[in-house]
Amino acid sequence: MIMAVFWHREVVAPPVKLVVPPYTTPAVEKKLLITSDLPSMGGGSWLPTQDGPPDTGLFVGSGRLRADFRRLTVLGAWQRTWESADAKDLVVVRALEMRQAAYARLQATHSCSPSSTMQVPRTNRAGFIKRSRDYASACATLVRGRTAVFFLVRASRAEAPKAAERMLDDLVRLQQPRVPVLPDLSTLSWRDSDTRAALNAEAMSAAIGLPMLLGLLALLRDPASWRRLRSFFSRPLRDGVFRVDRLVNMRLASSTAAVLVRFCVYAWAVRLTEMLYMGIWATVAFAVTAVMGVLVIEKLLQRRHADRWRPAVFKGHGRILAALGSLLTAVIAGGGLFLVVLGSDVQAMGVSPATSDYVATGFGGLIRVIGVGVVLLALVPFILVRRLGMRHLRQQVEQDQRRPTLMLRSFADDRRTLRARRLDRASVVERLFMRRFERFEEVAASALAVHGPVEALSQVGEKLPPPLGAARRSFSMDDWKDGVRGLIGRSQLICVTVGRSESLLWEIRQIRAAGALARTIFLLPPTRRHEQRLRLAVLGHALGIEWCHLDRARAGTEVLAVTLPFDSPVIVVGRAPNDVSYEAAVEIAALAVVGTKPALSTDVSETVDAYLAYARRDGRGDGQPSIYATQPAPPVSVHAPGKAPVFRPWWRRHWRLYPWVVASVIPAVFALAFGTSRDIHSDSVSYNSPVTGITQDEVSSTGYAVIGGHFLSRLDFGQHTGHTVVRVTDYMDQVIVRGDTAYYLSVESGRVGRVDLRTRHIVWTQSAGGGARSFVLAKDRVVVASPAIGRVDAFAVKDGRLVARRSVAGAPYGIARAGGHIFVSLAQRDQIVELAGDDLQPVARLAVPRGPLQLTARGEQVWVRSVLDHVLQVAWPQASGTSAVNRLLLSDQNACISGNSAWLAVQGMERVTVLQPDGHLRRIPMPDPSFLALLVQRDGSVVVAYDSGRVTRLR
């Protein structure tokens, strides 16, 4: 098995290779158009906003299947995006060099899906995605050999469709000569992919790991296993007892070997499917065949054992019930198997089309666990049908010519269970669905059934007997005693589960009065040692046996049964009260009564002979009175009829704790499955329109959301509601709230304005030039940066009058305030200019990485997002040593950033990274990474807003 799992194979799939900076520049990047190549559309200069790998689903995400598709089909890919200085136009050029021309044609087909076509020379497909008089969005694809080039143009101006069509034609004309026609390369095999390795690992874990996990859970639930383990560290009692350890050890070794062989078969079956490169469902079919083969072989090996009394539970019309139960079991098992396979595939591939990929990985694991639970529950209909059939066995028992075996018990012990180790007791269906525990009655009845039909009294109100237990005999309250006397008289064997009820004590006395003690086996059920001593005391009182002959319970010496074959008690013991020990004790004692058979194995025959030899020596080893009764005899405590405490499993005794356990476990399971932290709490507010922006009041902690670009709403996460404050005609791209006043910037109209939130009136509006990108409040001024006109304007907050103006070359784009100064990023100069706060006089120029756009302030630091170098770093003060972190690589090329007080938040791949005041980083997984706006509040909580209208606060 170890060789099957570890020999020349990847036990765990390698980590996913993500597309994150620093990016490796492919050869196709040299063939793309650059900024100087672009023709003008009338919106001024072009500002690059992306220069890196494509932002499509194949390149964004942590899924393993995405990474494999990239490795197997793509040789290199690059994308460049520009927007005009006045923010009215957008151009995207994306090139993918594939390994095969067929892959390139497929990419071109899926990249551009226009609603109406247009004629653009040299293109494979071109058309408008959306068009109107003053807006147009158009795409085109160009395939050259195994290279596919995608073009996207958006225009928001007069005669937009004509401008977009003209721009597409120019882009294709300029790009087409730069792309050479390359021959196809050899294809890579899917067989060697990481996804294939992950699927193999999942299949192996399902075949080996899940049964081992179930076995471990059964071991933890089974106290007999722990008692047996402890017995090896104690000194077992040798004198005054008859030990069945030799026979038990042999059978446990045989059972363990059978389990290990089964694991080996399962492991090598999965390994063969890997070596033969079988598909998913072929692997499932091969694994099912291997399982069925193991079951058939085990069935053939069972023929070596003595035949057990297996009554025909279903006859006549009952076979219809059996067929329905088996069909329902098969349907449920098939559904569970489907969920296991589906969960394994989803977990291995790790791709989600609507959420973050890590959610798919966790969701796949959860589906897999549910599937295992469904497979285990598939046994329930089969057991239920068998229990229904057991109600009709009395007629079969009466027709059997052999003398029956009588089982007497205290009804309070009916729910005691043992871990099932012996596979020959269970049916094929029960072994197939890993039935792990059996009732104590089933274990004893199975051992007694070798000698004929087994009968037991039916409890008043018992509707369904155990599926492998004894056939039930029912008597009324008036004649049950006569019925018991009759059963005692005609039974060849009597098995009594020793209890402390008055009714059972009366039955034991009737056995003694009938002279049937020699053919009676008194079983001690698995209980705590104190309860076992109490039961032994009751048995000794009923049979007149001195306590010194019964007190044998020690660590490593568990009393299993008491017999009186020659009028002297024989205490049968073992290392642990498990099913194999009880079965051996019953088998040996029963064979001593009914006689051995030629078909018995040598070890059983020798154990029976040793048992009889021991019994003839009065059961005392050396014939002397025992000296091992070191503790005084416990009091004889007998419960009145109906007053014996009913044994209940622990999950029934503590049912009141279930709501608390469920409330704790479910969040923990979801946190582990979906990669979220349990210390992250979320609150949400929902709107009917997209939430395009969020901000926090600079004076208070109140949050605000921009709904649909025109409505400003106050957020109340405590009540999960929002209250609309004001409506603005201009489209609000940015909003700043200070107390009862809000200031907004509209990029489309180029206007900045002030709104009184108490009166809901617009106080003033001013034009800052078309395409104004960002603004900031600096004391009593509103300062705006406009790249289209190369200017920074300052307006008075009171009346909106212009108080300062500064022309700045290099496309002033982002703006921030820190240390009493104004900082403006120059998108075309790779610089930041520092301006005086009063008159906007230049103070200094700071060199920064390429493509500086957004600026944000974190305390007295100014951070800049440089889109061409894919970094977010401290721009001022450049020699700052206040933080251990001063540079972050951006895994999202269009990342949202937010700075507030001493906090900084930035969007990453499937997460948000928060830089805390102490300089430590905090990663917050985002199940839905497609948010439109990001805000970090002054208490460190993160707020994200979605196109669906949902606003979520993460704390």
Question: Could you characterize the architecture of this molecule?
Answer:
- The protein has 955 residues and is α+β, with helices and mostly antiparallel strands.
- The protein has 21 helices and 45 strands.
- The strands form 10 sheets. Strands 8-17-16-15-14-9-12-13 form an 8-stranded mixed β-sheet, with helices on both faces. Strands 1-2-3-7-6-5-4 form a 7-stranded antiparallel β-sheet. A 4-stranded antiparallel β-sheet has the order 18-45-44-43, with no helix packed on it.
- β19 and β20 form a beta hairpin.
- α16 (502-513) packs across α17 (529-543).
- It is elongated.
- The two termini are 47 Å apart.
- Mean pLDDT is 87; it is low at 620-629.
Write the layout of secondary structure elements.
Elements: H1 2-6, E1 46-52, H2 64-73, E2 74-84, E3 89-98, H3 101-111, E4 116-117, E5 125-131, E6 136-144, E7 147-155, H4 160-175, H5 194-221, H6 223-231, E8 242-243, H7 245-275, H8 280-302, H9 318-349, H10 357-377, H11 379-390, H12 394-399, E9 405-408, E10 417-419, H13 428-432, E11 437-439, H14 440-448, E12 454-457, E13 471-473, H15 480-490, E14 493-497, H16 502-513, E15 520-523, H17 529-543, E16 558-563, E17 570-574, H18 579-594, H19 602-616, H20 650-653, H21 658-674, E18 682-686, E19 691-696, E20 703-707, E21 711-716, E22 721-727, E23 734-738, E24 741-746, E25 751-756, E26 761-767, E27 774-778, E28 781-786, E29 791-796, E30 802-807, E31 812-818, E32 821-826, E33 831-836, E34 842-847, E35 852-858, E36 861-866, E37 871-876, E38 887-889, E39 897-900, E40 903-908, E41 911-915, E42 921-925, E43 933-936, E44 942-945, E45 950-954
Helix pairs in contact: 5-7, 5-9, 7-8, 9-10, 9-11, 10-21, 14-18, 16-17, 18-19
